[in-house]
Amino acid sequence: MNTIRRTPLLVVWMLVLVGLGSAVGCGGEKPESPPSQEPDASLQDAVAEVEGALRDEDVNRRLAVVWTLPERRDIDASTKVRLLLDALDSEISLPTQATLQYGTYLSSSEYLRFVYTRSLGNSEPAGLEVLREALRGESGELRARAALALGYAGDPAVVPDLLELLRSSEIGDIRSDAAYLLGELGGEEAIPDLRRAIAADTYWVTVKNLSGTTSGFYPVRAEAARSLKQLGVSVELTEDGEYRVSER
Amino acid sequence: MKPRKEVRPGAFAWAVAATSLLVIGAAGLQSDEALDWLGVTRWSGTIRVEVTQESNLMDSGKGVLIASASGSVNLELADVRDGPRRAIWVGDGLAFSATHQANSSMGNGTIVLSESGEGVSQGGSVELLIDVENLTYTVDFDVGDGIPGQATIEYVGGFGNETKAVDLGLDELDVRTDDLRLPSSSPGDLTGSFEIDVGTPDGFGMGSGRKTGTLSWSLLPCIDAETRSLEIDPFNWDALVFDMNGSELNQVAIANNINPEEAEPSIYWTFPEIEGVTLTTDPEDGRGNMVGVEYQGMPEDNAAFDVQDPVKVTLPGCSEVTAELPARFFFSVAGKGNPDDEDVPNWFYYWRQTPAGQGLARSAVRYEQGEMCNMENGGDVYGFYPPGADHIYLCDAASGTAWNKVTGEYTDGIDTYAVTVLHELEHKRHYDDWWREFDEQWKEDNGRSRFEDTTAYRADRRIVDRDGDDIPDDREASLGMDTVPDTHRCKMTDEHYLAWLAEGLWQIGAADKEDWAAPGKQHGKGSPPVYPAGGPLCGIAKTGRRRG
Predict the structure, then answer these.
(1) I want to staple A169 with a disulfide (CB 3.0 to 4.6 A). Which of A93, A165, B309, B511 is the partner?
(2) Neighboring chain A residues of B400 at a CB cutoff of 8 Å
(3) What is the SS3 assignment for B242?
């Protein structure tokens, strides 16, 4: 998926929405009027505004727009999800070059993708349908993040996808989110993979601690530990900072 | 010394009635010009007197005293008399601004005898008398006690320092001009000068020398008062910004639609003053339809930018007309020129003085723009707290935009400054509460700094902070934290989560009215983007299924 391909689709989608609205009687109080074939002008303006903001050079402004987009009432849920998917797709294919985001262990681009994913997870039901379409039709990181977003939205149907992501995604932060969501949504079937992750996942992040020296931790192992506890498995944090899982 | 003319008190009402009668009579005797001159009930203008006095300044020396006084006058019609028909306008209670200087050369070397003084006092009177039949006029000026009678002169030099009072003698000055021709236009402005020569009084006492000088006047007849008007060109007065790299602010004040146009040279300006800033105008007296104004230096206090006085232009005269515009002053946000000794940007200097500065003393917050303000791979750092220090640092990013990774709030400008201060102070508090003692003890136990053996230090620290989130294990539970490093899934350590959370103590917009930055909350860019409440990004999910 890419932006060039998606933009016309968005317009077609808006036209369909307008047509459907007329067909089912939404706003159809005046049957003598022919159904409008043009997307609502204010919707177009709102979409154009968001599209512009999502390309803003100021990463902070982009983050604010992404995070608050699900709250907007002037854009329908499906369009909002498509806008976010477009922006996420652009970020994946052309990552923001600024490096570490202040105060987090992720790079700017990784952090943006995380916030896109979390924002998509706040979508309304109609928007979640678009996410499910993406899960079926897309591949690579975009598909992975669609799965995570559905997981954040509380959809247990994505547990198999989350398991697959935990096992094989090459992106540590995606494995970390998958590990966390399996604790939220999964069941017994997630425990073996979480056990494997807690013992062997190598995703390591470095942080500068308050004393001015560096330290670090394993995010996937930490999330796996949390999820295992969530699923009723006893996990102990040892004095050397390792997680020890009980045999059951 | 000529006798004073008699001016009958309360003659004005009578005079107005008499003027009507004279209009008929004068029409038969003279041209219509006479009627016009009599029709003027008021005059307005300025009077100036300059006197040079060859004076005995000391008991054994001579010198020169120069004194001048000028003031604005308003003359009211006081009397109209027959034979020949004359009208008299009188003004008194004049407000003078007087200056006087003294210089002297003594036989035994040069002694600096310089003195200048300035005073404003009330007094003196002016009479304008017009002979409407012969079309002449005279001006009668009496200083009375309108100018200070004495000046204090400080003698410095070979005779030692000494201060003496010298009699200026101006309080006795009473000048009446010869008969002067009225201008051909009627009624027109009366402008002229008259040479004064009082002569040499007897005696050799101090201040007894000969006085010569000039009396000059400029009087405008008060006619068409209702049509007088002027305006200020509004160009830029609402957004004056101190220069980016220096501390100057230059502006040209222009008056438009001046009516009458001839009054243009007499209009004068007053400009708002800013405490701690030098204000100069070109021309110096601020007169004219176009005046340059320069503010040099920047104020010490942020509050000084909150200027209440307007820029004002006045068309003086019979019916004074003024025009005003509010003027608003700002500092260039990234510029310099502020009074701080350490060459810091204006935002850093002025915002600390607002509520955004959290009451921090200047010594508790420092400006940094070096490597510490860049993340290892190039990202911006807003601020930092060096472990163990008694102060925090702020970087340029603290004046820009930010997005809180915990609360989801977007900030810019002074709000970003405020939240950055809170954020770094929270780090400092955590270090002081949790790690200062540990680090000092570790150094004592190991005989070296933690930076000299980070591996050993990291291992020992892990014992009390097993999950590596910078919060000691024994504090985790009371802070609502789990034994994972990122309890709230914010992609940061739990300690950093608390620092982000502390930013929420700041109420966005709370310092807007004290932000005089350009661009800033009251200048230029208008309101920053307002985003709907997105809710916290981490900690509490907005939607979705959460357990426990």
Answers:
(1) A165
(2) 60
(3) strand
